[in-house]
Q: What sequence folds into this?
């Protein structure tokens, strides 16, 4: 069983994330999408809400499971029988940090990292930018899944 993890904050999930998750699901037996619990970082959606949105938008893929983790990703991998991390690379600016993390994870626990180049349609896309655009009423259709649009509008209206 080749099981991999796509880790991230997913605050909220974007079409860029979904593109990587769906491509990974075609390559591996099981993909675990793991939401990072980071209590020091203020988020727009709770971990539960982010997981629920991820479940909704990945429901069509039979081999994708949604979970959460805190602490070291390599510990989550060990507990869940995961041998590799799948990451999307948007631009050169992602590379330095991602390479450091990949090498650290390999050196700590022999966990491999597989990089996928982003779909050019989404190379400029990040959750933080989506939050910013939504906050000022910008149009995010085509950038986040349909199911997320309404939730995003409602949340920014509340805050
Ligand atoms: P962000 O807030 O930058 O979207 P996340 O922590 O939610 O960051 O993203 C998790 C991972 O998903 C990133 O490390 C990256 O590997 C991948 N990712 C995020 N956005 C994209 C995108 N537009 N294209 C490809 N991969 C992406």
A:
């Amino acid at each position: 069983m080749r099981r991999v993890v796509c880790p991230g904050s997913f605050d909220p999930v974007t079409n860029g994330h979904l593109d990587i998750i769906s491509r990974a699901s075609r390559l591996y037996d099981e993909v675990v999408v793991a939401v990072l619990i980071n209590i020091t970082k203020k988020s727009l959606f709770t971990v539960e809400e982010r997981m629920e949105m991820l479940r909704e938008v990945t429901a069509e893929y039979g081999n994708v499971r949604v979970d959460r983790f805190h602490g070291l990703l390599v510990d989550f991998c060990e507990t869940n029988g995961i041998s590799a991390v799948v990451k999307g690379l948007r631009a050169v600016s992602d590379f330095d940090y991602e390479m450091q993390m990949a090498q650290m994870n390999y050196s700590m626990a022999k966990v491999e990292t597989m990089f996928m180049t982003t779909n050019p349609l989404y190379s400029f896309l990040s959750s933080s930018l989506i939050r910013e655009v939504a906050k000022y009423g910008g149009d995010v259709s085509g950038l986040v899944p349909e199911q997320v649009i309404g939730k995003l509008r409602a949340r920014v209206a509340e805050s």
